[in-house]
Amino acid sequence: MTATYEDTKEQLLDAILGHVPFDGWSETSFLAAIADCDLDTGLARAICPRGAVDLALAFHVRGDESMLERIKTEDLSGLKFRDKIAAAVRFRLQAVEDKEAVRRGVTLFALPIHAADGAKAVWGTCNLIWTALGDSSEDVNWYTKRATLSGVYSSTLLYWLGDDSPDYQATWEFLDRRIDGVMQFEKLKAQVNGNPLLKPFLAVPNWLAGQVKAPAKTSDNLPGSLSSGK
């Protein structure tokens, strides 16, 4: 049976993971993966035009898919919504099979030339979480929820990379604190909206928010220069 494009890409991804801890998501690792798979270099370049960068993004997508599968199979019905969000972030981090590969990925996407790719990957993860949990927000709220969660997820990821506590308990406590901070802000915003004395101060921002329409909800869209919409 002839291997498909995706099969070959997965094969390359599996192969490069053995080299990333030593050489990072680099050209050296990519060439080693090609050799390990006994692939034609031209074919590998056709599948991954940017080499290891494309495989690093594929590694991120693999983690997202694992997270989504767990969200679908776990019973979260008894949880408050903030706890569902926390659980989804935990699922995403627990989906990582190789922590060093993530550490090297953070280094890769910290480079200015790849920063947009990294931001798009994080935004995509957070969009998947909100969508999987049934978010139906519209207008500016669609953006702010994903932007806020992107900040929570990114900071938790960095904390997790340096966490050596048993079962990453310190990370989960850090995550809970970050989400509590976000929820307190949302509560304050709701109180201001409900106070007739303070509500006039939000008239202009709320009018502007009403002019913003959420785009078609696909995981590829991003705000500004990162992509076309979300």
UniProtKB/TrEMBL annotation:
Entry keyword DNA repair: no
Pathway(s) of this molecule: Cofactor biosynthesis; ubiquinone biosynthesis
Coiled-coil regions, chain positions: none
Keyword rRNA-binding annotated: no
The entry's keywords: Lipid-binding, Transit peptide, Ubiquinone, Ubiquinone biosynthesis
Annotated GO MF terms: lipid binding
InterPro entries named among the record's database cross-references: COQ9_C, Ubiq_biosynth_COQ9
A biological-process GO annotation: ubiquinone biosynthetic process
Matching Gene3D superfamilies: Tetracycline Repressor, domain 2
Domain COQ9 C-terminal: 116-186
PANTHER family according to UniProt: UBIQUINONE BIOSYNTHESIS PROTEIN COQ9, MITOCHONDRIAL (PTHR21427)
Protein purpose: Membrane-associated protein that warps the membrane surface to access and bind aromatic isoprenes with high specificity, including ubiquinone (CoQ) isoprene intermediates and presents them directly to COQ7, therefore facilitating the COQ7-mediated hydroxylase step. Participates in the biosynthesis of coenzyme Q, also named ubiquinone, an essential lipid-soluble electron transporter for aerobic cellular respiration.
Protein family according to the UniProt entry: Belongs to the COQ9 family.
Protein name, as recorded: Ubiquinone biosynthesis protein COQ9
Source organism: Ruegeria halocynthiae
